[in-house]
Design goal:
two-stranded antiparallel ribbon, 6 helices, globular, single chain
Length: about 110
């Protein structure tokens, strides 16, 4: 039940960020649910591999390279999901930071 709630909340957050941010385009709520699912799957399966492969760079950048990995995952999601468009790498970077911060705030406020 918590997983479904998190996916729906992420979908709503994607739509809210799309509304306030230029350079991001989401077709509708169904597309935002698909985006939330694809981002979740990419973060589960692909992100650990990318983090492991880029560990030296991540250490040298004091963890800031993780932002680049997050933006790359957003751009990959753009390629995989029809109805989702990201204009540039910088837009994907800002989108990933905003989504991470808003997810943290929402998850913290909904904790038991």
């Amino acid at each position: 039940m918590k997983l479904i709630l998190r996916i729906l909340l992420t979908a709503v957050l994607v739509l809210v960020i799309d509304y306030f941010m230029d350079g991001i385009s989401v077709a509708n709520f169904a597309t935002s649910i698909i985006i939330a699912l694809v981002l979740g799957l990419l973060n589960i399966f692909l992100k650990p591999i990318l983090v492991l492969l880029t560990l030296p760079v991540t250490i040298l950048s004091l963890g800031l390279f993780l932002l680049v990995i997050n933006a790359a995952i957003i751009l990959l999601c753009d390629r995989l999901v029809d109805g989702f468009r990201v204009d540039s790498f910088l837009t994907a970077l800002v989108f990933s930071v905003l989504l991470s911060i808003s997810q943290s705030v929402v998850n913290f406020s909904l904790k038991d």
